[in-house]
Structure to design on (179 residues):
């Protein structure tokens, strides 16, 4: 687990500036917060549990050079401000490290609403929401890395995404694509 956190931390150092602003409190660097967030997501912890886990684990604190443990809201705020562009940059760095040829790929798509209040108002007004966010990913079966992704406003047919995904992963010479 420590290797995973260090890998996330090192890739974040290559991608993020040290601090989000020159006026920030500069208690924690952006790479530190990203590594904590990656650790939280990997272990399927909630924000409070990850802080409790960090309090116990001195190895993680030393690996991330943490002098103090951040409050869970600090990690929440970092996640809300996290731009997709930075995630794409980290994903690109990972893909360069794991070149892949002649492999199996899986495509998946799912839709979700923006908030839980939508369900309440749909039931109350007896109207269904016609628009939602649709997320599509293509994953290679060897390294389990995302090779192509797309997020659009739905509803839309999955076939349009499948065509663009197949074009994007053609450079990997796929053997089989499952859905």
């Amino acid at each position: 687990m420590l290797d995973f956190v260090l890998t996330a931390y090192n890739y974040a150092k290559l991608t993020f500036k040290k601090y989000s602003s020159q006026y920030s409190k500069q208690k924690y660097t952006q790479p530190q917060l990203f590594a904590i967030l990656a650790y939280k997501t990997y272990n399927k912890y909630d924000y409070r549990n990850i802080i409790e886990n960090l309090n116990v684990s001195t190895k993680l604190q030393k690996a991330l050079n943490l002098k103090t443990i951040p409050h869970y809201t600090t990690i929440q705020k970092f996640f809300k401000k996290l731009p997709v562009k930075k995630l794409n940059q980290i994903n690109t760095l990972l893909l360069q490290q794991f070149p892949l040829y002649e492999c199996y790929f899986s495509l998946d798509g799912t839709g979700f609403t923006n908030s839980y209040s939508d369900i309440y108002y749909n039931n109350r007004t007896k109207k269904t929401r016609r628009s939602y966010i649709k997320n599509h990913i293509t994953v290679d079966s060897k390294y389990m890395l995302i090779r192509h992704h797309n997020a659009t406003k739905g509803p839309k047919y999955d076939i349009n995404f499948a065509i663009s995904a197949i074009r994007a992963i053609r450079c990997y010479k796929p053997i089989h694509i499952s859905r």
About this structure: The chain has two domains: 2-93, 98-178.
